[in-house]
Specification:
Helix content: 25-40%
Number of helices: 3
Number of domains: 1
Order of helices and strands: EHHEHEE
Length: 98
């Protein structure tokens, strides 16, 4: 299993984040590139090398990015599923290696 809390904020949206995040967090911890999913792409491609068959890659994303994140996992050969926690206002995209 690989679990990642990768940066997923689109570059252009960093300025709209609350000050406690955008001022005190290193930019590299926030900036996910143009659509926020650049690191997700790198993780998905590499995950097939790290995971045994049946292994899982779990990556946090925004609810609005979840569909695009599943497409990234499919392109990397992983079977995706989206899990959402209303309680924690969190979305996780899970890719399973066949």
């Amino acid at each position: 299993m690989v679990v990642a809390n990768a940066p997923y904020v689109p570059t252009a949206a960093i300025g709209t984040m609350p000050p406690e995040a955008r001022i005190h967090e290193p930019r590299v911890a926030l900036d996910g590139g143009d659509d926020g999913l650049d690191v997700h792409r790198r993780l998905a491609v590499s995950a097939t090398e790290w995971l045994a068959p049946g292994g899982h890659l779990l990556v946090e994303a925004s609810s609005g990015q979840a569909t695009d994140a599943t497409k990234i996992l499919v392109a990397a050969g992983l079977a995706p599923v989206i899990r959402r926690s209303e309680e924690f206002d969190a979305t996780v995209v899970i890719g399973t290696r066949p």
